[in-house]
Design goal:
Two copies of one chain form a homodimer. Chain A has eleven helices and ten strands. By secondary structure, chain A is an alpha/beta fold. The interface between A and B is large, with 58 and 58 residues.
Amino acid sequence: MGGDYGPNPIVEGTLEALKKQSFSALLVGDSAQLESKIPKAFKERIEIVHCTDVIQMDDAAANAIRRKESSIFVATELLKNGKADVLVSAGHSGATMSLATLRLGRIEGVSRPAIATVLPHIGGGEFLLLDAGANVDCTAEHLHNFAIMGYEYAKSVLGYPKPKVALLSIGEEECKGNDLTKGAYALLQNFPNFVGNIEGDDIFSSDIAVVVCDGFVGNIALKTSEGVADAITNFIKNFVKESVSGKIGALLMRKVFRKLKKRLDYAEYGGAPLLGVNGNVIIGHGKSNPKAIYNAIKQGIIAHEQQINHKIAQAFIKS
Amino acid sequence: MGGDYGPNPIVEGTLEALKKQSFSALLVGDSAQLESKIPKAFKERIEIVHCTDVIQMDDAAANAIRRKESSIFVATELLKNGKADVLVSAGHSGATMSLATLRLGRIEGVSRPAIATVLPHIGGGEFLLLDAGANVDCTAEHLHNFAIMGYEYAKSVLGYPKPKVALLSIGEEECKGNDLTKGAYALLQNFPNFVGNIEGDDIFSSDIAVVVCDGFVGNIALKTSEGVADAITNFIKNFVKESVSGKIGALLMRKVFRKLKKRLDYAEYGGAPLLGVNGNVIIGHGKSNPKAIYNAIKQGIIAHEQQINHKIAQAFIKS
């Protein structure tokens, strides 16, 4: 209910997923609004869990724990009580994160759950960047946690047989970085497939599956990337308008631009899993369209089938 | 001498600058290599300061202070002794920075000099991002220093009458960010033209003249931007090759692509001034081509004419 565009894209994405995947859906929210959106053919596979409160995007995340009638609170409880296997939300991400951590609890050994964003390698394939904003101030141990969780997710859900893990830093050598990354480098030395530091200009074109950083740096890297991609796209669009040859050229190149758009479109990569909590929680973009919701559901189903949290728990026991 | 391509682009850029600007040049390095590159017409305006040692890109910056015969050491001494007004280097940036700080000293009140990178607003104009890598671990006071220095530089050298200053963070509200940015926000409250936080996706399309952050975050933002721009350009190039219509389209759009390339080309923006030391030091990209050197020299001349360091010193007295 709490996404930027309300329940419409959520329901549409769910219907799309029901057509292609084998699962049943619980839609949590105001039944008066939801009921009419569901075609007869799907009624058997969708159950509406009615609640009336909605946490809005500008509400404080800290208050979420007291809003027991809100859609995100009720949905979290369904996960906690084993009535649902996966939670997908396009609502207030801070509230989702804090409720998931408080109500589901952390996996044994995890000191900080992290948001793992799935991003495109420009040549094809995907990689994980974590943390992407859950933890703005981190210790080296937290980064070590993120590496363990990211490794398991990249292996089980993204399908890398041996995911390479790297630390986002400002130079490839061990001695380059800040106190935090140097500390994390030391802890990660013996981690399987740790390949050292990666710089910002290499993350989109390397073969690294997992890029580890604190949530502040991750969010800056993510947003800056979006900013540059948008700026370049707008630059081309504006100049194309100015000349006839530009317009014809753009028309002839439309296939390329369409492919590029698809490659850069966050909706293709679903949502961001919240790793480290006892449950499969996928945090979608507030502006998620039906395609993004569809992909988030698909991703959540794989995470569940692959028992990702069990694997993460095992990895922490071994570490 | 220490740039990635040796002295050639440095000499060519200097000759270009001598044609268009009123100044005389001291070229510091091996006279055996430099002498032959200088056409007769320029001999009167160029003096070669001979030295033989060169700090290589993979040398440790910490040893630079003992390499008294190196080109960067000798060049720094020329600045210190008042024999030169501006130092431009495309060599080892860590060595340049550390020698400048140790030999020239800091401006009174400055606790940490910072590298200020000049970046393009995609719609036109330029902005400063600082620190871009000199200080990987910062306090809120350091960020406050960077804001003061960046403000003066944007005003005097980039030509903003009232430069807007913002903190790079992960949300616009004061409460968003990490401990460092929240502390810096509090210190900057009363700073002239401080407009609050800016997110990574807005830096290339806003009207902010000065973006303040620690050197680790600045370097990540900078490199990530380069990475995305390169990845998009390569993506388009590769797909264009695959079809005839793509090729023709690209040909018709070549004017757009040329403008975009120029807009994104670091060489257009010269080097990065090292702000906070007693002297005008411009740190160029190791891969600087003649155009980058030309622009770095031009920028250094403006900084000198505008007495930027005097203005920074005054600003610290007032602050």
